[in-house]
Amino acid sequence: MDDHLESIEVTKEEVLTCLQQMNSNKSAGPDDVHPRVLKELKEIVATPLTPIYNKSLSTGQLPECWKCANVVQIFKKGDKTEVGNYRPVSCRMQTFGINFKSKVWMFADDTKMFNVVHENRNDTVQNDLKALSDWSKRWQLKFNINKCKVIHYGNSNPQMQFTMPTEKGDEDLPNANTEKDLGVTFDQSLKFSLQTNEAVNKANRLIGLVRRSFDYMDKDMFLPLYKSIIRPHLEYASCIWYPLLKPKR
């Protein structure tokens, strides 16, 4: 463990604050203890939890029970008897004991991996891809290689080729110029022109639909329809893509 972490000490007051902020509407985790129970019994629970957290920080280790998570297979489409058409869903990938050097996110049925590649070396990303593939095989929820792809960012990106282990051996992952994530289109330049164009085009189509649906419409009628049907498409995920570069004239 790094030296600067050795001085960190978790206090009971900090544990109480975290327990108080727990969402009681969430479901229980692998320990089957509901968040509402932890929240209402925070004064009692905080006492044993505080030394456990400090022990974990000082030793650089986690209790074995903390390395468990609930993984649910979500059917996407196609043949329900084909394992590749299911996706593993868990937001606690690293608690399974997989120590990735890359950043790995799982949201719903999507998995993202990110890292910086220097000096034409792709060892880190490639090793993490293998670890991720081994994890999926162990849980019998294999990744569909046809839906996996790589997108490179940066003008000096070496554009390395990455592979994913499959039953047929290592297969090359195709490179992509764009990727849609949670409804937002990302391109290699991160200028989001495609995202804004798609939003404007969809808004215009909806405006045309509204006009064709009514023989008469004044400002008072149109404004509620615009705010509820059209405007959300223009503002969706604007915290990600706005502000953006003005197009060249």
Please give the structural blueprint.
Blueprint lengths: L11 H9 L14 H6 L1 H18 L12 E4 L10 E4 L13 E5 L2 E5 L8 H16 L24 E4 L2 E4 L5 E4 L2 E4 L5 H21 L5 H17 L2 H4 L8
Antiparallel strand pairs: 1-2, 3-4, 5-6, 7-8
Helix pairs in contact: 1-3, 5-6
Share of helical residues: 25-40%
Give the number of domains.
3
Poorly predicted residue ranges: 1-5
Determine the strand fraction and express it as a percent band.
5-15%
| Backbone shape | extended
Q: What is the gyration radius calculated from CA atoms? A: 24 Å
Q: Tell me the series of helices and strands, N- to C-terminal.
A: HHHEEEEHEEEEHHH
Q: How can the largest sheet be summarized?
A: 2 strands, antiparallel
**Structural class computed from helices and strand pairing:** alpha+beta
Number of strands: 8
Average pLDDT metric: 82
Number of helices: 7
Report strand order across the widest sheet: 1-2
Gap between N and C termini: 54 Å
